[in-house]
Amino acid sequence: MRADACIIGGGFTGLTAARHLAEAGARVVVLEAQTVGFAASGRNGGQIHTGHRMSQAALERWLGHGHARDLWNLCEESKALVRAQAAAFAPDAPVKDGLIIAAHDRTALRELGEETDYLHQHYDYTAARMLCAEETRHLTGADYFGGKLDMGGGHLHPLRYARGLARGAEAAGARILEHSRARSIETGDKAATVRCEAGSVTADHVLMATDAFSADLAPELAPYIAHVESFVSATAPLPPEVNAQILPTDAAVADTRHVLDYYRKSDDGRLLFAGREGYWSVPSDVTPIVRKRMLQVFPMLKDVPTEYAWSGTVGITVTRLPHLGQLSPRVFFAHGYSGQGVALSSIGGKLLAEAALGRRERFDVMVRVPAKAFPGGPWLRKPLVAAALFAFKIADAF
Question: Which DSSP state fits 101?
Fold first, then answer.
């Protein structure tokens, strides 16, 4: 096949890029190894966060005030983009406003307060406010030292959102080929060719939207992307008396642990709870792992069965900021959303599209964030990442 742009990956990044390019008149082909939203885009917690995993004050110290503000503006745009795309293409996945960041200790509570004040004073961000322990308990149904309620954040049904993005991309003229795993990328002076088992796509540009799996196609990216397996479960619909106690305002929650708990309610009244993660392999049934943690947070759920459980692969970077860049004049990539991919991968896709259309200014805002390699080389990298994450898990217990 011949196209103007070949996009590898049918998740939030690839589908957003596909729609923007198709609406600009480009011939677009999307290659997806499984089905739309099969990997992280369909299996995540559906939470929409404000900012990056690094505070704005820390970003300013590292990158300078101007660059940090540009990153903030992209983050704010990313939330608006999710809301707009969900409303236009995924009416069955409406965004529900409200995200609570729950402090698991006093140090985390103090840092949340400092960040909330900083964003208010320096970025005029007034959508977030601090919560005392009692109010946090009332809004979550669980015991924390306090928290932050961010009405600029929220949550949605991620797989429905991904499928809606696919409909929007196809309506704009993009062609999505599922069960078409990309095996290699060959670049030439006039075009690049992506080869699959059953054929190939030759295009002016190739956009890699493969997140945690980027190194499978581009081994040179391996030092910059690692992954963990996040485990999620869904209870049976909550009994009325329990449903009234847990998340009565239907906000989503993420706590401040390194290996965090995050949860929300589904449309049919289930609790979707994610807690714990794996670094090497995924058990055949993650239910006992997640349920043990869930009952520590919500003992009142001991008689409510878990009916579904699944896992998803999350791409992470050393900096916990997305990694965007270019492998050759014709091949662009975006990955490493580090647990905040609902919003950041959506804007990542838009930036990839802009770059492929020759408008690099905003794409380069992300490219200028220095990428840091994971230590250890090809043999020790994964054991060292696993050891570091396990150390964070131990630290969370104290």
Answer: E
Nearest to 272 by CA among 44, 12, 10: 44
Taking alpha carbons only, the member of 157, 186, 169, 159 closest to residue 34 is 159
Q: Which class does domain 1-94+156-218+319-367 fall in?
A: alpha beta
Domains of the chain, by residue range, sit at 1-94+156-218+319-367
- Per-run averaged pLDDT (10 residues), the chain, 398 residues: 98 98 98 97 96 96 98 98 98 98 97 98 98 98 98 98 98 98 96 96 98 96 92 97 96 94 96 79 88 96 97 93 97 96 98 98 98 84 72 65
**Would you state the structure tokens that stand for residue 126, as one six-digit string?**
């007034």
Which residues, 6+ apart, have CB-to-CB distance to 293 below 8 Å? Answer: 261, 273, 275, 276
State the residue for tokens 């809301």.
83
Task: Give dist(CA 83, CA 226) in Å, integer.
Answer: 29
∠ CA 170-359-191 to the nearest 5 degrees?
65
The dihedral built from the CA positions of residue 207, 317, 364 and 362, taken in this order, carries a sign that is positive
Q: Report CA torsion sign: 213, 259, 344, 252.
A: positive
pTM: 0.95
Q: What angle do CA 366, 363, 46 make, to 5 degrees?
A: 70
> pLDDT tens across 75-121, in order?
999 999 999 999 999 999 999 999 999 999 999 999 999 999 999 99
CA 391 to chain centre: 23
CB atoms within 10 A of CB 380: 12
Cβ–Cβ under 8 Å, residues 353 and 24: yes
Please say whether the dihedral angle defined by the alpha carbons of residues 243, 48, 51 and 227, taken in this order, is positive or negative: positive
